[in-house]
């Protein structure tokens, strides 16, 4: 969250001539509710089930750039799908960068509510780091780079695989 997936994804998709799907938007369209509403009314487990279903639906589409939420890696089956069906790019940002990007919207993000922003981001990153490393085909450090430069780096990584 906050690493730039929803910004870089469309830039990369245009560059490659692919379609683009923001998985969070797909989840909201499928559920007919916002992610905060899903969390509040149904809980995180229900959200994760929707997330897995939407990921599975996208997994066998070709010519698609997908921007999943940062927690998609929590489920073992999701990690298997990501490893086997996608060229996964881990957009890695330092916690301070993420905190700065999310500062004005933390209250709209269920996993950040009621916590010190920087501490929560660091904790989530620490909890998920091994999962990100497990599924990543490519790691791109994004701090200080434009979306276009990040997309170029990803495209170059795709050519080398």
Distance between the termini: 26 Å
Rg calculated over all Cα atoms: 15 Å
Give the CA-based shape: globular
- β-sheet strand percentage: 5-15%
Q: Estimate percent helicity.
A: 55-70%
Mean pLDDT: 90
Concise account of the structure shown:
The protein has 161 residues and is mainly alpha-helical. 58% of the residues lie in helices and 10% in strands. The strands form two sheets. It has a two-stranded parallel ribbon with strand order 1-2. A two-stranded parallel sheet has the order 3-4.
Describe the structure in your own words:
- The chain has 161 residues and is mainly alpha-helical.
- Helices cover 58% and strands 10% of the residues.
- The chain has eight helices and four strands, in the order αβαααβαβααβα.
- The chain has helices at residues 5-16, 23-31, 35-42, 44-58, 76-85, 95-102, 117-135, 147-159; strands at residues 19-22, 64-67, 89-92, 138-141.
- The relative contact order is 0.18.
- Mg(2+) binds at residue 6.
What are the SSEs and their pairings?
Elements: H1 5-16, E1 19-22, H2 23-31, H3 35-42, H4 44-58, E2 64-67, H5 76-85, E3 89-92, H6 95-102, H7 117-135, E4 138-141, H8 147-159
Parallel strand pairs: 1-2, 3-4
Helix pairs in contact: 1-8, 2-4, 3-4, 6-7
